Each structure stands twice: as structure tokens, then as C-alpha cells.
């Protein structure tokens, strides 16, 4: 039971961290979004570009994390009694949640930036 609680806490911390970092980096690209809109890009193309750009590090992080968790899971299996290291449901749920959080973290600021007047975005207001 306590292992599940710690796992849930780790997942919440990971979700918070991913959301914060991705949101910050998308917000830092607001001026770029404004320039793209000013040059004639439509909102859907800008949102799709930001989603592809923002999800790349999320996917890389999930691949590295999955590999590391499989390795660490083998060690935990040998050290703890009645622990299954390769529960597919756990991995699928965690990866799905991180994907959803990453997509939300990219989409929300990109949508907000796409709605702003390009001149105001370029000026930094």
C-alpha cells in the first residue's frame, strides 16, 4: 500500500514538473508565434507546430523513463517480496497520463498565444 502511495506521489510530481517546464518553454516562444501569425500562418497550423515541437522532449523523456523504470523494477523485484516489476497496466496508465499532460501543457499556452493580436505579441505586451 505504501509503495502505491509513493508511486502516486511520484506521478503527481512528474506531471507537475512536465506541465511547468513545457508551459514555460511555450510561453517563451510567444513572440515567435506572433511573428508566424503576422506573416499569415493560421491558428491551426501554429497550434499543430507548437504541439509537435513541445511533445518531442516529452516523448524522449517518456522513452528514457520507461527504460529506466524497467531496469529499476528488476532490482526492486529482487529486493522486495510480492512486487511485480512489469505490470503493463501501470506503464500504460502512466504513459497515457504523461502524454495527456504534455499535450495539455503545450496546447493551452499555444491556444492563448494564437488568440492574441500578433502586434501585441511581437511588442511583448
Helix percent band: over 70%
Major β-sheet profile: none
In round numbers, the mean pLDDT is 82
Question: What is the straight-line distance between the termini?
Answer: 50 Å
Please tell me how large the radius of gyration is.
19 Å
Shape estimate: elongated
Walk me through this protein's architecture.
There is one protein chain. With about 120 residues, this protein is mainly alpha-helical. The radius of gyration is 19 Å and the shape is elongated. It starts with a helix and ends with a helix. About 15% of the residues are buried. The mean pLDDT is about 80.
In short:
This protein is mostly helical and 125 residues long. The protein is built from five helices and no strands.
List keywords for this structure.
86% helix, 125 residues, mainly alpha
Q: Secondary-structure map with pairings?
A:
Elements: H1 2-28, H2 30-38, H3 43-79, H4 88-115, H5 118-123
Amino acid at each position: 500500500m505504501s509503495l502505491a502511495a509513493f508511486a502516486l506521489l511520484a506521478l503527481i510530481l512528474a506531471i507537475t514538473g512536465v506541465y511547468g517546464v513545457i508551459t514555460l518553454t511555450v510561453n517563451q516562444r510567444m513572440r515567435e508565434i506572433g511573428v508566424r501569425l503576422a506573416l499569415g500562418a493560421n491558428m491551426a497550423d501554429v497550434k499543430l507546430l507548437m504541439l509537435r515541437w513541445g511533445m518531442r522532449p516529452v516523448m524522449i523523456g517518456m522513452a528514457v523513463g520507461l527504460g529506466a523504470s524497467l531496469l529499476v523494477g528488476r532490482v526492486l523485484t529482487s529486493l522486495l517480496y510480492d512486487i511485480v516489476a512489469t505490470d503493463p497496466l501501470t506503464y500504460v496508465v502512466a504513459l497515457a497520463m504523461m502524454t495527456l499532460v504534455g499535450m495539455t501543457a503545450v496546447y493551452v499556452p499555444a491556444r492563448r498565444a494564437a488568440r492574441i493580436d500578433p502586434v501585441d505579441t511581437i511588442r511583448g505586451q
